[in-house]
Design a protein that fits this description.
elongated, Rossmann fold, 20% strand, binds calcium ion, 593 residues, TIM Barrel, 3 domains, binds ligand C2E, eight-stranded mixed β-barrel, Alpha-Beta Plaits
């Protein structure tokens, strides 16, 4: 969507409007360092609606800074070569203002010389008629207006009319200079926004469809923060939020980010269809994070990438500490690649309990990395790296394979479970061989697909919706069930819930942990359970740690629970022991413990 200079210029000419009313006065500056008699020129200016100021060349710069002049009249000083350097200086410093050379007499050679040095016009005052002067003024005013308009349009993105990257850098660096020097006591939030899946949307529907989305996106953003918005390219926008130094910038920025998320996740209308494209937001703060433009833009972009990796429809404020730990995570990268080959992964199991009977009915498989030097590493530390590098694809296959083998071993001991859930990252859907590979693994490891359930997060559904839908449907045909993990933390669409083969909802543990203290959490949990009942889906509460929480869930008719109250995730051997013990935990027995 970049524009070529030629294209911009021709489309710009169509957009130019430089009409000027006859009553509007023209501001002229007469520069004369030789004490020349300028009466004729001044009379003519007066007759042509022109205001003027007169000064020597030494005073000209100060005058030009103080006031907006549309035309400059520069005296040629007879044969003086100074006039050429003065002309050169004016053209360099004030390229938008036409410079008209004037003198009582001018030879053709002298006129040629001035025109070569980019004078806009030359007038010989001794021969000047009002008719000619009128034309000179009119023509040069038009040149001035075209120049000004062209410069303005050059600072704008032709698609959205927002300021472009160059202009944004110019405006921001001016602000940063003032803040850095302590001359401005304000703070800034640099907010970087883009859509998730925009490239894919463009590839499928074409660039003009993409343009419609970008235009709509810019309108929605402009409505939230007028005047401080720029388009850096494609679907990438930046907003500048400015507050006085003593205001709480972070809380105002969080509010704005939430408003952006709400506004941009509203469906876009394309060919009478509703298209939902989630977005990601990254924020860097001035002066807290930096006062250096490239660093700031980089920080906001990093934060946006982080938001995209974590969950779609989210914002991340840059965090120096987190950034350092992310960098140390990238140190894990080379080792992660060889971890499968070195057999360093282990699959732990956390029991899933039927709340009314208190019996273990299944388990969630949770991966661990037994690092030879660093010890046991939890998934939150290495899954983001695995997702970023694409290593999640082979790791994901390892998990399915291991789970299949473990289920076979349990079966051989006469122990069986009804549900085995496995986490599937949205990145795994980017593997075009996902269905085929899983089908092969199912066959090779004799996996009973009716007990197999893949846990997806809500953001996985939002990322490349079509693509994921195809994957889910393909896997469902193999007999695999699906559940929505961390339910309540993302953006779910009811139509997705109804049309995709999702059989259960897992209530996020952040809500479960608050049910007995926080009325909002209790209401959310109630609403999710009610929703699951009315959609005829199973509902599972994660992170159940106390008998009070279990009691609350039991009363509302929540089907299953998982959490430390029953057991932490344990190794295969420990899980087998738990199954063998046949231990039951009900709300009553837990309360009596
Ligand atoms: P998750 O899917 O939400 O997994 C549940 C996490 O909650 C597990 O953390 C579990 O140990 C923890 N948990 C369970 N019960 C309780 C409780 O009562 N209290 C508290 N405080 N925590 C509880 P874990 O094993 O560290 O896994 C973290 C995340 O890593 C998982 O979140 C999941 O998103 C991801 N993950 C784990 N294994 C895999 C995998 O094989 N593939 C993929 N793609 N992601 C995985
Ligand atoms: Ca899970
Ligand atoms: Ca979860």
């Amino acid at each position: 969507m970049e524009y070529k200079h030629g294209r911009l210029f021709s489309s710009t000419l169509n957009m130019l409007s430089v009409t000027r009313s006859d009553t509007e006065k023209t501001n002229c500056l007469i520069i004369d360092s030789c004490g020349f008699d300028t009466t004729t020129l001044i009379d003519m200016l007066a007759q042509n609606h022109c205001d003027f100021e007169k000064c020597s060349f030494d005073q000209a710069s100060a005058k030009l800074v103080q006031c907006d002049f549309q035309l400059i009249f520069l005296h040629s000083c007879f044969t003086d070569t100074n006039a050429l350097s003065e002309l050169h200086f004016l053209r360099q410093q004030y390229p938008l203002i036409p410079v008209i050379m004037f003198d009582h007499q001018l030879t053709t050679e002298r006129i040629d010389e001035f025109m070569f040095w980019r004078a806009s016009d030359c007038v010989i005052t001794s021969k000047l008629t009002n008719e000619v002067f009128k034309r000179v003024i009119r023509y040069n005013l038009m040149v001035n207006q075209y120049n000004t308009e062209l410069t303005r349009l050059n600072q704008l993105d032709p698609l959205t009319g927002m300021t472009n990257r160059q202009q944004f850098y110019k405006q921001l660096s001016q602000k940063l200079k003032l803040i850095g020097k302590g001359e401005a006591s304000s703070q800034l939030a640099l907010i970087s926004v883009d859509l998730d899946g925009f490239r894919r949307f463009n590839n499928i529907n074409g660039y003009s469809a993409g343009d419609i989305i970008v235009k709509e996106m810019s309108k929605r953003l402009a409505a939230l923060i007028p005047g401080q918005l720029s388009r850096l390219g494609n679907d990438e926008f930046v907003l500048l939020q400015e507050t006085p130094a003593d205001d709480n910038l972070t809380s105002q920025t969080i509010e704005l980010c939430n408003n952006i998320l709400h506004s941009l996740t509203e469906p876009y209308i394309y060919h009478e269809l509703e298209v939902i494209l989630p977005c990601s937001i990254g924020v860097a703060l001035v002066p807290e994070h930096s006062c250096e433009i490239d660093t700031l833009v980089h920080q906001a972009t990093q934060a946006r990438i982080k938001a995209k990796e974590t969950s779609s429809c989210s914002y991340v404020i840059f965090d120096q500490e987190q950034h350092r730990s992310d960098e140390s995570q990238t140190n894990l990268e080379p080792e992660l690649i060889s971890a499968i080959r070195r057999n360093e992964f282990e699959l732990f199991y956390q029991p899933r309990i039927n709340i009314s009977s208190g019996k273990i009915i299944g388990a969630e498989g949770l991966i661990r990395w037994r690092h030879p030097e660093k010890g046991l590493i939890y998934p939150d530390t290495f899954i983001p790296t695995a997702e970023r590098t694409g290593m999640i694809v082979p790791i994901g296959y390892w998990v399915i394979q291991q789970a299949g083998d473990d289920m076979q071993r349990l079966k051989a001991c006469g122990l069986e479970i009804d549900r085995l859930s496995i986490n599937l990252s949205f990145r795994q859907f980017q593997d075009s061989y996902l269905c085929q590979t899983i089908q092969r693994l199912i066959k090779k490891h004799s996996i009973d697909t009716s007990i197999l359930e893949f846990e997806l997060t809500e953001s996985a559904l939002f990322n490349n919706e079509l693509h994921v839908r195809e994957g889910i449907e393909g896997l469902h045909k193999l007999g695999i069930n699906f559940s929505l993990d961390d339910f309540g933390t993302g953006y779910s669409s009811f139509s997705l819930l109804q049309t995709l083969p999702i059989s259960s909802l897992k209530i996020d543990r952040s809500f479960v942990s608050g049910v007995n203290q926080n009325p909002d959490d209790a209401e959310i949990v109630k609403a999710i359970i009610r929703l699951a009942h009315s959609l005829n889906k199973e509902v599972i509460a994660e992170g159940v740690e106390t008998s009070q929480q279990l009691n609350f869930l039991d009363r509302l008719g929540c089907h299953q629970a998982q959490g430390y109250l029953y057991s932490k995730p344990v190794s295969y051997d420990d899980f087998k022991t738990l199954l063998e013990s046949g231990q039951r935990v009900t709300a009553e027995s837990a309360a009596n413990q």
